[in-house]
Write a structure and sequence with these properties.
This protein is an alpha+beta fold. 35% of the residues lie in helices and 19% in strands. A five-stranded mixed sheet has the order 1-4-2-8-5, with no helix packed on it. The chain has a four-stranded mixed sheet with strand order 3-7-6-9, with helices on one face.
C-alpha cells in the first residue's frame, strides 16, 4: 500500500491517514474517507479499541480508534496499528502512556531521519510500558480526560474574556 490513494466515495474502503490524526487522541471510524485500495488490506484493518501510532513527524503519538463493533477501516502507512490485549491494558491508558513526556523522550532518542523523523516498529515494540491495575488505569484515563476538558474550557474562557474586553474598550 505504498501508492497514492485515489478517493472513491461510492465503492471504496474507509482509510485512515496520518493527517486524520493530527490533533487528537481518538479517531472516529465513522469519519474515515473512502479510497480505492488494491492489494491485501486485511492486515491493515483497524477496529474499535485499536491504537494508531504516528510513526513519522515531529510528535510520535497514539490515538484510540473509536467505532461500533461492525465498523472497520484500513490504516495507511506511516500509521502503525497497535492492538492492546484487553485483559492486560485499556486502550485509552496505553495511548495516554505513549503520549506522555517520558515515552516521547524515548522516541526522541531512537528517532531516525533528518528532515522527517521516523520511529520503527521495533523501537515502538521496545518501549517499556508501566501497566498498573485496571482501577488505576481507569483513574488515570479519567483524570487525563478531565484535564483536557479543563484546558479546553480555560481556552474558551480566555477567548470570551478577550471578546468582552474588546467590546467594552472599543
Amino acid at each position: 500500500m505504498r501508492s497514492r490513494l485515489s478517493e472513491d466515495s461510492a465503492g471504496g474502503l474507509e482509510a485512515v491517514q496520518l493527517g486524520d490524526l493530527l490533533r487528537s487522541d481518538a479517531f472516529l471510524l465513522s469519519s474515515a474517507s473512502k479510497f480505492h485500495l488494491e492489494g491485501k488490506v486485511e492486515r491493515y484493518r483497524v477496529r474499535d479499541g485499536d491504537l494508531l501510532f504516528r510513526s513519522r513527524g515531529d510528535r510520535n503519538t497514539a490515538a484510540v480508534v473509536v467505532g461500533s463493533a461492525d465498523e472497520t477501516a484500513v490504516a495507511v502507512s506511516p500509521l502503525i496499528i497497535i492492538r492492546p490485549r484487553a485483559e492486560v491494558v485499556l486502550p485509552e491508558y496505553l495511548a495516554w502512556f505513549i503520549n506522555q513526556t517520558p515515552s516521547q523522550l524515548y522516541f526522541d532518542s531512537c528517532a531516525r531521519g533528518t528532515s522527517l523523523r521516523m520511529i520503527s516498529r521495533k523501537d515502538l515494540d521496545q518501549l517499556q510500558v508501566s501497566v498498573p491495575d485496571f482501577e488505576k488505569q481507569k483513574l488515570i484515563v479519567n483524570i487525563s480526560k478531565l484535564a483536557t476538558q479543563e484546558q479546553f474550557l480555560l481556552q474558551q474562557l480566555a477567548e470570551k474574556k478577550k471578546e468582552y474586553l474588546d467590546f467594552v474598550l472599543l
